[in-house]
């Protein structure tokens, strides 16, 4: 499975460049500077126009304010023009711009909007400790500003209170935007980790299933080779055996060699994923289904077996073994997730059409507590059926139950 692209960055122009940089782990590791997106250009140009517009309004107010000399008004306009131009630097140096504009705002009306924009940018892009110091200094300088530049239309206390609340509101807005972006980054990181963990769990389940299949193949292959060796040894030590007995032994050797080659092809595909161990276990076949159902009934389950297979003795051992494992895992899942229900195991098939295995259970009565680690057995069954050349499907039924349905080739 390949890496899943970040779903939040599908429309890159819609998000701020700083947020995209945090959502892109490759860019963060490389330390690349984020490029402005289309949204960044629109926002920066809007901030620049806002600063210029408020500055022009302040120029008209300066002309009507008798407390401001003409020379100071000219200096005020020059400082305001420089502050508006510096707004374009707010993304690269948010802290430096906010610190530089803080003392200028005391002596310049036309740079007030640029100072608030710089303070907002600082709250968005930097931690709270920087915002607290710079924002606190800005609020503390508000009384000094209106003492140097008293408003002609507003009382001193009203003007100070309004400007202080405006500064606090801008800082709060910036901190809210920063918290929202951090939440998006956190959700994206959690989604990425969940996808990675799910992929690792699936890969681990497939690896364990392949190793288990490889162990079974090892046992079967050893059994076939031992059988072949026994019959070959009999021919070697009984060269005077009757022709019919010799022909029968040669046929057994040929069939055993053919089956061993088939098992060997399967085990080679399995061994690519992991090393099998040498633990020998008796291998079940389709004939062991009756024993499996009997054991389940003794354990307290209500199990019905429907066996409609033409010539069960002719079913290949590898196919019968796979069918047995599918039925076994289906009964195990029913016992864990639907205790007390009537489980039906249906096996049908014929040579040339394949073998169908169905394990069905109705919905359980009452609430069943979740079982940790569920789903890994079904992953192994799917892998097993695929290696056998068949297919397996599982899932809930429209009536609320659950079924495992498999088809295995029988040629």
From TrEMBL:
What is this enzyme's class at the first EC digit? transferase
Q: Does the keyword Phosphoprotein apply?
A: yes
Q: Give the E.C. number(s).
A: 2.7.13.3
Which Pfam families did the record assign? HisKA_3
Keywords, sorted A to Z: ATP-binding, Kinase, Membrane, Nucleotide-binding, Phosphoprotein, Transferase, Transmembrane, Transmembrane helix, Two-component regulatory system
Q: Does the keyword Kinase apply?
A: yes
* GO terms of molecular function: ATP binding; phosphorelay sensor kinase activity; protein dimerization activity
Q: Can you say what this protein is called?
A: histidine kinase
Give the species this sequence originates from. Streptomyces qaidamensis
The taxonomy runs: Bacteria, Bacillati, Actinomycetota, Actinomycetes, Kitasatosporales
């Amino acid at each position: 499975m390949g890496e899943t692209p970040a779903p939040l960055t599908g429309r890159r122009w819609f998000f701020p460049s700083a947020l995209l940089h945090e959502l892109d782990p490759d860019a963060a590791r490389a330390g690349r500077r984020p490029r402005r997106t289309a949204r960044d250009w629109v926002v920066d140009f809007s901030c620049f126009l806002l600063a210029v517009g408020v500055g022009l309004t302040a120029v008209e107010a300066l002309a009507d304010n008798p407390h401001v000399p003409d020379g100071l008004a000219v200096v005020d306009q020059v400082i305001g023009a420089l502050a508006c131009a510096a707004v374009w630097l707010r993304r690269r140096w948010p802290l430096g711009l906010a610190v530089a504009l803080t003392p200028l705002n005391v002596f310049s009306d036309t740079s007030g909007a640029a100072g608030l924009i710089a303070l907002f940018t600082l709250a968005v892009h930097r931690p709270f400790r920087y915002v607290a110091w710079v924002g606190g200094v800005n609020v503390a300088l508000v009384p000094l500003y209106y003492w140097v530049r008293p408003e002609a239309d507003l009382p001193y206390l009203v003007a100070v209170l309004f400007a202080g609340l405006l500064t606090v509101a801008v800082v709060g807005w910036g901190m809210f935007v920063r918290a929202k972006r951090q939440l998006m980054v956190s959700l994206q990181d959690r989604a990425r980790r969940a996808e990675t963990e799910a992929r690792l769990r699936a890969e681990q389940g497939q690896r364990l299933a392949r190793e288990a299949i490889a162990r079974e193949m090892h046992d079967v292959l050893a059994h076939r080779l031992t059988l072949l060796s026994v019959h070959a040894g009999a021919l070697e030590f009984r060269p005077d055996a009757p022709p019919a007995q010799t022909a029968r032994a040669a046929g057994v050797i040929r069939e055993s060699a053919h089956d061993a080659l088939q098992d060997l092809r399967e085990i080679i595909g399995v061994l690519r994923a992991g090393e099998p161990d040498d633990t020998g276990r008796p291998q079940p076949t389709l004939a062991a289904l009756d024993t499996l159902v009997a054991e389940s009934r003794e354990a307290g389950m209500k199990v019905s077996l429907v066996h409609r297979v033409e010539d069960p003795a002719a079913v290949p051992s590898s196919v019968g073994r796979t069918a047995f494992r599918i039925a076994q895992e289906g009964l195990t899942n029913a016992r864990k997730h639907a205790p007390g229900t009537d489980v039906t195991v249906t096996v049908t098939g014929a040579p040339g059409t394949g073998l169908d295995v169905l394990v069905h259970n109705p919905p359980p009565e009452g609430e069943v507590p979740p079982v940790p680690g569920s789903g890994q057995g079904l992953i192994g069954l799917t892998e097993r059926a695929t290696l056998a050349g068949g297919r397996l499907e599982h899932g809930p039924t429209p009536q609320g139950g659950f079924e495992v349905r498999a088809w295995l080739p029988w040629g």
